[in-house]
């Protein structure tokens, strides 16, 4: 399903240690962070839904749950701060331009919006009118 989005060995040497070590549940060991992180990058770069994540990155539910856990615990913020310190940049200079952020086709709404919100009562009178019944 297209070209694999991944990190080079040098990039992973920088980013890998910044990610938290995960614990497995029970007797199962946790998976390596690299395919999970690359799966997160794939979703971010393609703008696709989590359900369309290729199998080579792991189960989409596992990647999504780890992503949510990292967002809630501030892993990405800490990674950004650490990487900014490593290159000597001020973190406040980072921003996202909305012209490059992709929205999934499901997120696209009606062009001008609804003129008037439809209610259940409106639908029942519309149906009666179409059938020729007196209102």
Note down, in words, how this protein is organized:
There is one protein chain. By secondary structure, the chain is mainly α. The protein has a domain at 9-102. The protein has five helices and no strands. It has helices at residues 9-15, 33-46, 60-73, 75-87, 120-131. Helix 2 (33-46) packs across helix 3 (60-73).
As a percent range, the share of helical residues equals 40-55%
Beta content comes to under 5%
Radius of gyration: 23 Å
Note poorly predicted spans.
none
Q: Give, in order, the helices and strands.
A: HHHHH
The coarse silhouette is globular
> How large is the count of helical segments?
5
User: What is the mean pLDDT?
Assistant: 74
Number of strands: 0
Ends apart, CA distance between termini: 55 Å
Characterize the main sheet.
none
Structural class: mainly alpha
Give the helices and strands, then pairings:
Blueprint (H helix, E strand, L loop, with lengths): L8 H7 L17 H14 L13 H14 L1 H13 L32 H12 L4
Helix pairs in contact: 2-3
Question: What's a concise summary of this model?
Answer:
The protein has 135 residues and is mainly α.
Name some characteristics of this structure.
single chain; 135 residues; mainly alpha; 5 helices; 44% helix; 0% strand
